[in-house]
Amino acid sequence: MAQVTCNVGQVISSGFFDTGSEIAKGPPYIVCSAGCAAAFDGEFPAGTALVGGKRHYFAQGQYANNGSKCDSGGGPGIPTGDGNAPDPNEAVPPDTCGPGEAAGVVNGKPVCAPDMTQPGDGTTPPKTPEPPKSDDSKSSQTDIETQTNPDGSKTVTTTTTTRNVDGTSTTTKTVDTLNPDGSKRSSSSTTTGSGVTKEAEDKDKDKKAEKCEKNSSDTGCGGDPKAVDSNGLYTKKEATVKGALESAAATLRGSPIGAAVTGFFVVGSGGTCPTATAMIPFLERTITLDFYCTSFATNALLLLRIVLLLIASWMAFRIAIE
């Protein structure tokens, strides 16, 4: 069988495509139909609908040949086989519910609930239906942006913002890089928002509660500190600095050197300056020794007294502090 010619840009199908119930999945990027590979170009999500009572997400766009051949069931480039291209819809289909359920609206959103119009079997009354279930505990909005890179790859940025009933919100941004053949090259995801901050604060509160449970007197726990007997912190002693100095001074005065220093240079009243006169035969002269009567001697002895008193005071202080 002759192989098909895959013309670049030839549209094989267009419309709304059901991608299933997982919003993170999205439409297949590369499909194979009639032996030719086709790539999706459009937006997602372009709408939602209840299919058999379960929410499905729809993409809107078209699949066009990229010039490559593929195996759609009959061999590479052979225009036979079913392939894997999704079937398009002209529009987002109306909501449908499962057996025994009826479609309704809660807080502006379609939901499925047990059908109350169906009667019982005549012997037992019909069961009381459960309240309609809804996902109104939080709402989400997803935006997808696709950018074609110079090397033929595509960068798909999916931003999902979730708003919780407590007023907080989280934003998850996922960036996927796809190779020209549709395979994933890289992926990264970050989550920010007040919901993330609140979650971290709740964890901190749990840690603080656990800490305060172990020790109620810890900082920020509000408990009473443990009683401590102040008598065990400090014991007053009888010794003082003044008493130590006076005791050391008394000890010094009682020692031989202290007694000697105490009376040193103390001259009683009525004394005279000592002098001496002598005849030196070999000099044939009479010499008078009156050195201690000069002003120089008086000043020198006074200075010596001061030095000795300073030394004695230092020794007394050293003995006191040791």
Task: Summarize the SSE layout with pairings.
Elements lengths: L10 E8 L11 E4 L2 E16 L2 E16 L18 E2 L11 E6 L2 E6 L23 E11 L5 E11 L4 E10 L5 E9 L1 H21 L26 H14 L1 H7 L13 E5 L4 E5 L5 H27 L1
Antiparallel strand pairs: 1-4, 1-5, 2-3, 3-4, 6-7, 8-9, 9-10, 10-11, 12-13
Structure summary:
The chain is α+β, with helices and mostly antiparallel strands. The chain has helices spanning 194-214, 241-254, 256-262, 295-321, and strands at residues 11-18, 30-33, 36-51, 54-69, 88-89, 101-106, 109-114, 138-148, 154-164, 169-178, 184-192, 276-280, 285-289.
Domains (count): 3
Largest sheet: 5 strands, antiparallel
> If you average the pLDDT, what whole number results?
76
Structural class: alpha+beta
Query: Total helix count?
Result: 4
Order of strands across the widest beta sheet?
2-3-4-1-5
Spell the H/E element sequence: EEEEEEEEEEEHHHEEH
Helical content band:
10-25%
Cα(first) to Cα(last) distance is 115 Å
User: Which percent band covers the strand fraction?
Assistant: 25-35%
Cα-atom radius of gyration = 54 Å
**Number of strand segments:** 13
Residue runs with pLDDT of under 50 for 5 or more positions: 120-124
Q: Specify the overall morphology.
A: elongated
General description of the model:
- By secondary structure, this protein is α+β, with helices and mostly antiparallel strands.
- It folds into three domains: 96 residues, no CATH class; 85 residues, Roll (Nuclear Transport Factor 2, Chain: A), CATH 3.10.450; 75 residues, no CATH class.
- 21% of the residues lie in helices and 34% in strands.
- The strands form four sheets. A five-stranded antiparallel beta sheet has the order 2-3-4-1-5, with no helix packed on it.
- Helix 2 crosses helix 3 and helix 2 crosses helix 4.
- The longest helix has 27 residues.
